[in-house]
Amino acid sequence: MANRVDHEYDYLFKIVLIGDSGVGKSNILSRFTRNEFCLESKSTIGVEFATRTLQVEGKTVKAQIWDTAGQERYRAITSAYYRGAVGALLVYDITKSQTFDNVQRWLRELRDHADSNIVIMMAGNKSDLNHLRAVSEEDGHTFAEREGLSFLETSALEATNVEKAFQTILAEIYNIISKKALASQEAAASTTIPGQGTTINIDDSGNTNKRSCCST
Amino acid sequence: MDKKRIDDSDSVPVPSQKLDRFGFVKQELNNSPEGVSKTRLASEYVREERRVRKWRKMIGVGGSDWKHYVRRKPHVVKRRIRKGIPDCLRGLVWQLISGSRDLLLMNPGVYEQLVIYETSASELDIIRDISRTFPSHVFFQQRHGPGQRSLYNVLKAYSVYDREVGYVQGMGFLAGILLLYMSEEDAFWLLVALLKGAVHAPMEGLYLVGLPLVQQYLFQFDQLMKEHLPKLGEHFTQQMINPSMYASQWFITVFSYSFPFHLALRIWDVFLYEGVKIVFKVGLALLKYCLDDLVSFSKISTLFLIRLSGLCCAYGCYMFVYQTSLPFEKLIHALRNFPEDAMDPDKLLPMAYSIKVSKRLEELRQEYERKNGEVAQSADSSVKQKLLR
């Protein structure tokens, strides 16, 4: 029963890591969960999994992260993992414009398979390779703004902004949840149908997805 | 020809890094007393010599007696393969048992044509993954070195040969394991034999759009697991653990992705002779071997389910389920990090051989096909016919 100590957290959030193959998803995960980076990592086959518990807005939050294979063919397996995810870190490689161009397709994937309220952070990874840059930070910002996504450039190698990217997603999820909890409590108090708390839509995150629906 | 091993290759620089006997960089600090391994090696050496002699007799010069021997004594062959093919003959025997030798002989010059004259839409995808395939093996480590070049050539050739499959991540591990035991061209034809089904059912469905065969295998494995290990099956269902979380790599790379290499080789010996059912058997044996650990993890969970289900969460009902995730995580971890003793081929494989799956596998395949409509099966068999023409 010593395990119980592990288990003390207030919230558990499921996050998916998506994006083209080779953009550095697995290294972002290992940097975040184990503070490790491996230049010689194997390509991910199927899905990998890791967790980390951290403090978000004074609460103990456990992030349960599913790292998915990036190659298109693998979506047959990986898209099942979007279900139940409350956050997504959508990664591209700032040195490969193709991976940035494909962000749109990944958003479509999320729309098709994930919860409509999912919180999405776009990360332009490999910011340490500035001399090979093919996507400007400004383009990243503009795109993210248009699609209503959070955005950061990260470097798993130099441990830049990896922590912050996850912190931001988790805080955003937490804020939505606490508002929702409040709303559902109020709804429960006034209507006495407590079970319906889960179906409430929240405006502040809903618009991000609505907007991306109309684009493409 | 079938030896492309570090011990007889001159081009490999004297490594400052320690390698294991298969050429993988040793990760752990190795403080094991030298004497123990030496004495064990000495007795093993004598035994190995005897085995090699037996095998050479069975194969004949360049494999000339092989077919005859298999026809006459299939059970002896099966038994000997299950004990492990001697490492020095592995490359040759793999080609004989997979039917790739025949493909090579029937298609002279084809490989060269594919490598030199054709272009593939997957070239960039392949290049991206080259350094991410067996990165800790000395043969594949050197950037643009002979290992990486061969790997690229084989994968490119395959992606041209079978444009419908093209290149899919995971294929590199199959090609990689083959290239450690044979030449590029031989490795290519063995890959063809496997994926197009020269001897056993074709496995190209592992990599076709939608990964249909992966889905079928996972379905079959899930059912088999529930039948053979009902208690574990129940716990996994409770914990919402399904085989795609831990077993997709087993099938997609036939255990070559993350399993200890000496075990992977032994599995490949049997896999090439008996077919994919050994992957199911080994998977089941692993779960069976670790049953007590896996089930005790799960027992803890029910307590937490009660304790935690009171937590308020407004983000959807699935959050409730994930609140019980301590055992879930431990289970996933355990399923991806089997203990060292479970990875001992001489313990695991006899257990695997004792599990009977053939009949149920076929029934489950039919069941799966009924569920998913009659697909691809007829196409598969016609390809096989064509190949063997």
Automatic annotation (TrEMBL), chain A:
<dbReference type="Pfam" id="PF00071">
    <property type="entry name" value="Ras"/>
</dbReference>
<keyword id="KW-0547">Nucleotide-binding</keyword>
<dbReference type="GO" id="GO:0012505">
    <property type="term" value="C:endomembrane system"/>
</dbReference>
<keyword id="KW-0449">Lipoprotein</keyword>
<feature type="region of interest" description="Disordered">
    <location>
        <begin position="194"/>
        <end position="216"/>
    </location>
</feature>
<dbReference type="InterPro" id="IPR050209">
    <property type="entry name" value="Rab_GTPases_membrane_traffic"/>
</dbReference>
<dbReference type="InterPro" id="IPR005225">
    <property type="entry name" value="Small_GTP-bd"/>
</dbReference>
<keyword id="KW-0636">Prenylation</keyword>
<keyword id="KW-0472">Membrane</keyword>
<dbReference type="GO" id="GO:0005525">
    <property type="term" value="F:GTP binding"/>
</dbReference>
<comment type="similarity">
    <text>Belongs to the small GTPase superfamily. Rab family.</text>
</comment>
<dbReference type="GO" id="GO:0003924">
    <property type="term" value="F:GTPase activity"/>
</dbReference>
<dbReference type="InterPro" id="IPR027417">
    <property type="entry name" value="P-loop_NTPase"/>
</dbReference>
<keyword id="KW-0342">GTP-binding</keyword>
<dbReference type="InterPro" id="IPR001806">
    <property type="entry name" value="Small_GTPase"/>
</dbReference>
<protein>
    <submittedName>
        <fullName>Ras-related protein Rab11C</fullName>
    </submittedName>
</protein>
Automatic annotation (TrEMBL), chain B:
<keyword id="KW-0472">Membrane</keyword>
<dbReference type="GO" id="GO:0031267">
    <property type="term" value="F:small GTPase binding"/>
</dbReference>
<dbReference type="GO" id="GO:0005096">
    <property type="term" value="F:GTPase activator activity"/>
</dbReference>
<keyword id="KW-0812">Transmembrane</keyword>
<feature type="coiled-coil region">
    <location>
        <begin position="354"/>
        <end position="381"/>
    </location>
</feature>
<feature type="transmembrane region" description="Helical">
    <location>
        <begin position="188"/>
        <end position="209"/>
    </location>
</feature>
<keyword id="KW-1133">Transmembrane helix</keyword>
<feature type="transmembrane region" description="Helical">
    <location>
        <begin position="246"/>
        <end position="265"/>
    </location>
</feature>
<dbReference type="InterPro" id="IPR000195">
    <property type="entry name" value="Rab-GAP-TBC_dom"/>
</dbReference>
<keyword id="KW-0175">Coiled coil</keyword>
<dbReference type="InterPro" id="IPR035969">
    <property type="entry name" value="Rab-GAP_TBC_sf"/>
</dbReference>
<keyword id="KW-0343">GTPase activation</keyword>
<feature type="transmembrane region" description="Helical">
    <location>
        <begin position="165"/>
        <end position="182"/>
    </location>
</feature>
<dbReference type="Pfam" id="PF00566">
    <property type="entry name" value="RabGAP-TBC"/>
</dbReference>
<feature type="domain" description="Rab-GAP TBC">
    <location>
        <begin position="84"/>
        <end position="275"/>
    </location>
</feature>
<protein>
    <recommendedName>
        <fullName>Rab-GAP TBC domain-containing protein</fullName>
    </recommendedName>
</protein>
<feature type="transmembrane region" description="Helical">
    <location>
        <begin position="303"/>
        <end position="322"/>
    </location>
</feature>
<dbReference type="InterPro" id="IPR050302">
    <property type="entry name" value="Rab_GAP_TBC_domain"/>
</dbReference>
